């Protein structure tokens, strides 16, 4: 501001203007100093990414491929809520991912770079616009897109603050969920940040051997360490941790594994979200995973509940588009499904 002859105190107004929702009365409704709007329009771009591709599924799920200033792309997804006026957004924290989870499409093209806080916020703004065009209001955001949020925590937290902040994104802390594959130091740092967001932990197996076979991070942090870190986050934040568990045929869907999971969670006020696997072709290690059958899924869910675990089956979204994270980006980059 000062370089351009304005007061530094004008900066918050400029920032607020970037978050205003088109078509609504300007929230800031603060008059800008003469010439500042013109200067901004001619000198800066408000957009950190442009829409490169959009897929709309029959169930209303919209998947956006956003092109960043350096030509790289990331995915963001808008999911209609049960409530007809609401929607949830899923955003990415990194371009690609280094975690190497065997069944994930994102990691197949490797890790490229962390997203900046601005690029993360941009996804929120684009999804909010997308929701409005679908006649809905964006009510919640989950960091479950491309990347591991805990490995880009500084930028993720900076973005979360802007998205939640009442004068900027105004979404609220409780409407935001950070997901992790189990980076214990990241969970500890999030605990210290004391922001009151929700935590989702991708466990995918109750025992270390199966988990480490699916998720390389399982070789570094044991299940008990990861759950202990989540316990501490839960105690500090007062937010119930969600355990994410993607059911894979013959890998982690046995009833004995459901009982082991219930045993692990006994006495922990956590809930389990069972996820249906979206096949992405051959895995990183050349395996072919399949989603568990409806019968096995129902039996697994029932077994968890019988043993006192609060569990739900998450609805599959956008089955007729490239629904799994990383798929649309790979296709846009010219990879055939299953090709590496
Ligand atoms: S599942 Fe998440 S953490 Fe694992 S490789 Fe994919 S994007 Fe990364």
Q: Outline, from the CA principal axes?
A: globular
The order of strands across the largest sheet is 1-2-3-4-7-8-9-10-11-12
- Helical coverage, percent range: 25-40%
Output mean pLDDT: 91
Model regions low in confidence, pLDDT < 50 over at least 5 residues? none
Which structural class do the helices and strands define?
alpha/beta
Kindly provide the radius of gyration, computed on alpha-carbon positions and rounded to a whole number of angstroms: 21 Å
Question: Number of DSSP helices?
Answer: 10
Number of strands: 12
Ligand inventory reads:
iron/sulfur cluster
Order of helices and strands: HHEEEEEEHEHEHEHHEHEHEH
Estimate the strand proportion.
15-25%
Main sheet characteristics: 10 strands, mixed
The oligomeric state is single chain
First-to-last CA distance: 47 Å
Describe the structure.
Helix 3 crosses helix 4 and helix 8 (255-265) packs parallel to helix 9. 32% of the residues lie in helices and 20% in strands. The protein is globular. Helix 5 links the parallel strand 8 and strand 9. The chain has ten helices and twelve strands. The longest helix is centred in the middle third of the chain and has 17 residues, at 117-133. The strands form two sheets. It has a ten-stranded mixed β-sheet. It has a two-stranded antiparallel ribbon with strand order 5-6. It has helices at residues 11-19, 36-43, 117-133, 153-164, 184-193, 208-214, 223-237, 255-265, 294-306, 327-332; strands at 49-56, 62-68, 73-80, 86-90, 94-96, 111-114, 137-143, 176-180, 198-202, 242-247, 271-276, 310-313. The structure holds iron/sulfur cluster. Iron/sulfur cluster is lined by residues 97, 99, 101, 104, 106-107, 146-148, 181. Residues 97, 99, 101, 104, 106-107, 146-148, 181 line the site of iron/sulfur cluster.
